[in-house]
Write a structure and sequence with these properties.
single chain, mainly alpha, three-stranded antiparallel β-sheet, two-stranded antiparallel ribbon, 18 helices, 69% helix, 4% strand, disordered C terminus
């Protein structure tokens, strides 16, 4: 086992939590949720990286084991609980499939890099176990987190801590872009070695000209854009609630939008389109939200105008052509052109072929790496596992949007905001992101806070 430099600081912090009140472990976990790229230690035998959020998730789970047992019964909506437990059962049962189809089906190993995409015969490996650990660990903390989000004094503080961490992620991304542009190589090597134990830092992808895409504490540009997508979706609706300071939420909304832009990912742009669709669907169901949606569209329009004007000025002063950049880097990718687009189209085609050979339970969780979550689920856990995944997300979305048990308007807005955020994240992940989106901790924060804000308003104040 190799401990990273920052791990020598985080491990003592984690051990200290065992001697503090239980809720401290909850807030600590929330703080580290956005820092997806921060590594505590590496397990040499398997090459597994134990990240900060995973390390503190384990401590949180152990510290709150009794709350976990209690919250399974009391803190989660019955439909959501049923579907999420069925999904959990299916991904475990699916591990028999690599033995059944061993050598008969070619797949892309989960250890294959994005740039080195090749097929090999199916077989059960240790990777199946390590990959299974990631969603199971998040499902395990989902239940006790739902309990903490159901308590008024904890929910608001948790969101505030999360917002602070997102701002830190944005600052880290800007710092990366500036230092890489200035070619401060030694600084970047030490910076990344401190956080990850690895000096590899350089992004060969550029936003425009010689200005790099944003690599932050949340991870590579695609991961970073997903974090800012949910932050933007959530904050854009919170401005209509008096639950938080209005000016601070607007600032978070602007930072999140800029984070999506600076990450330079097609995923972020596609996610914004999905967000607008979700907002439109919500507006058709809620007259008050229709007025709010119009205000949101106006604010976003002004923001886009401002960015477009800035882009025009930069284009005028330099040789950068933003129209060509948009077409070459994003529109062509969505159409399946360009190197990235071609790989995604190829991945989709081959995943469909694998699914056709084992449609019910797939070929086993963690067996095949597809570049879209939908095809990852279809190939790894089949139509049964995919259906339960969709059902527990739809159940959570419906609970958040209907919010029929919520009386206070400010909490109804919070619930609706979480529903739009979940809608944006899940649809974007299904069509544009790999199975890693199932293990992003901020995804499980959305799900657990939906349960919390709704359960709390039913008068379920549970104390253990």
């Amino acid at each position: 086992m190799e401990i990273t430099p920052i791990g020598y600081l985080l491990i003592p912090l984690g051990l200290t939590l065992f001697f503090l009140p239980k809720h401290k472990s909850f807030f600590t976990l929330i703080f580290f949720v956005p820092f997806f790229s921060v590594v505590v230690f590496k397990i040499d035998a398997t090459g597994t990286l134990v990240k900060a959020f995973q390390f503190f998730s384990l401590i949180f789970f152990i510290k709150n084991l009794n709350i976990f047992l209690f919250s399974i019964k009391k803190s989660v909506d019955k439909k959501t609980k049923k579907y999420i437990l069925l999904f959990t059962a299916i991904i475990i049962i699916s591990l028999i499939m690599p033995f059944i189809y061993a050598g008969e089906i070619n797949r892309v190993s989960m250890n294959t890099s994005y740039s080195d995409y090749f097929f090999e015969p199916l077989k059960f490996t240790l990777t199946n176990i390590t990959q299974l650990f990631y969603p199971l660990s998040m499902i395990a903390v989902f239940f006790p987190m739902s309990y903490y989000f159901s308590k008024k004094k904890y929910m608001k503080k948790a969101f505030k801590i999360l917002f602070i961490s997102i701002v830190i992620v944005f600052i880290s991304g800007i710092l990366y872009q500036i230092t890489l542009t200035l070619q401060l190589n030694n600084f970047l090597e030490n910076y990344f070695y401190f956080l990850t134990g690895d000096k590899v830092y350089r992004s060969l992808e550029f936003l425009f000209g010689h200005f790099p895409r944003m690599y932050s504490l949340a991870g590579e540009p695609g991961y970073t854009s997903m974090l800012f997508l949910i932050s933007f979706a959530f904050s854009s609706l919170l401005v209509f609630s008096n639950y938080f300071n209005h000016s601070k939420i607007i600032a978070l909304m602007i930072i999140s939008f800029l984070g999506i832009v600076f990450s330079g990912g097609t995923t972020g742009i596609f996610g914004l389109l999905i967000y607008f669709l979700g907002l439109l669907l919500l507006a058709t169901r809620n007259k008050k939200m229709k007025k709010n949606s119009i205000k949101i569209y106006k604010n976003i329009f002004y923001l886009i105008i401002g960015i477009s004007f800035s882009a025009f000025i930069v284009s005028w002063l330099t040789d950068i052509n933003f129209i060509s950049w948009l077409v070459n880097n994003h529109i062509m990718k969505m159409e399946g052109q360009g190197s990235s687009g071609v790989i995604r189209a190829f991945s989709m085609e081959m995943s469909i072929n694998i699914f056709e050979k084992s449609p019910l339970l797939g070929i086993g969780y963690g067996s095949h790496r597809a570049l879209q979550l939908l095809f990852s689920l279809m190939t790894n856990v089949g139509i049964i596992g995919t259906t339960f995944y969709l059902l527990f997300n739809y159940s959570s979305y419906s609970l958040a949007i209907n919010s029929k048990f919520i009386i206070e308007p400010k909490y109804k807005v919070v619930s609706n905001a979480l529903g739009i955020t979940l809608f944006s994240y899940v649809l974007t992940s299904l069509l544009a992101k790999s199975i890693v989106s199932l293990t992003f901790p901020w995804y499980w924060i959305i799900l657990s806070s939906i349960q919390g804000v709704n359960n709390r308003q039913k008068g379920k104040y549970y104390d253990i």
